[in-house]
Specification:
The protein is mainly α. 72% of the residues lie in helices and 2% in strands.
Length: 258
């Protein structure tokens, strides 16, 4: 019976786990195309210092480090008083909020890229660097930090609560498996976009020269995929029943019978 229960729990989690790929795919853009954007923006801080392009990724980490204690110490207790839930909101609600932030990240990043490209084409220097501060990349990266705060941590919270104690290691490994799958999925989407676009005289969206490409369209495409993924997740979450709550009910009934 215990083995059957573990299999049922695993099968229940799989649809929710599968929805995490599109959300985590946003992280692949942070280490690739976001850095490419930074290379074509003004990274000077003062007259004598130029920020390394890879350092822009620190903004998502800073956002996470600031917002995580605020969420645990301030927001969660306030939500607990309103919702009467031990964690303020359910794990599925937390995951859904993270998915919405991933969509916002891609939309805002696309809008920033559109402005950067327009600035580069009209006023760029000889090396193609736009006269636009790299700090414009920080707002979308702040949304990316919120994706981890809600989406990724929400998945971890769900797995730890729903899986039996003997399956906790499997639950934690699902996070890394989702991250690996999202990386391959991002590469697949990029390959398809690269092969499909750039025909009939139109620029390739993912051209090596991002000033000639349309990286903003690629970002909006991922945002659209994220929106479809959110609808799929919402349909799965509506019919999901928490195993932990069922166990709590069973323990109460046992106490009454005893």
């Amino acid at each position: 019976m215990q083995q059957v229960e573990e299999v049922i729990c695993f099968m229940k989690i799989l649809p929710i786990w599968a929805s995490g790929g599109i959300c985590v795919m946003a992280y692949a853009q942070e280490g690739t195309f976001v850095v490419s954007q930074a290379l074509k923006m003004d990274r000077h801080i003062g007259p004598n210092f130029e920020m390394p392009a890879g350092s822009v990724k620190m903004m998502s980490l800073i956002t996470l480090c600031i917002c995580l204690p605020f969420y645990d110490r301030v927001l969660q207790p306030a939500l607990r008083k309103i919702t009467k839930h031990e964690n303020g909101i359910t794990p599925l609600q937390r995951i859904g909020i993270g998915y919405l932030f991933s969509i916002l990240f891609m939309v805002v990043a696309g809008l920033v890229e559109r402005q950067r490209r327009a600035s580069a084409l009209s006023q760029a220097s000889e090396d193609g660097v736009a006269p636009m501060s790299v700090f414009w990349l920080f707002p979308p990266l702040m949304f990316l930090g919120m994706v981890e705060l809600f989406g990724i941590v929400g998945h971890i919270e769900l797995y730890n609560k729903e899986f039996p104690e003997k399956m906790r290691s499997i639950g934690n490994s699902l996070i890394y498996l989702c991250t690996a799958g999202a990386t391959y999925l991002s590469a697949l989407v990029a390959s398809i976009v690269y092969s499909v676009t750039g025909k009939h005289g139109e620029p390739n969206w993912l051209d090596n020269d991002i000033n000639a490409g349309r990286l903003d369209y690629f970002y909006f495409l991922i945002a659209a995929l994220g929106l479809l993924n959110f609808v799929y997740f919402w349909s799965c979450a509506r019919v999901y029943t928490y195993t932990s709550s069922v166990r709590a009910v069973e323990s109460i009934e046992t106490d009454i019978l005893v």
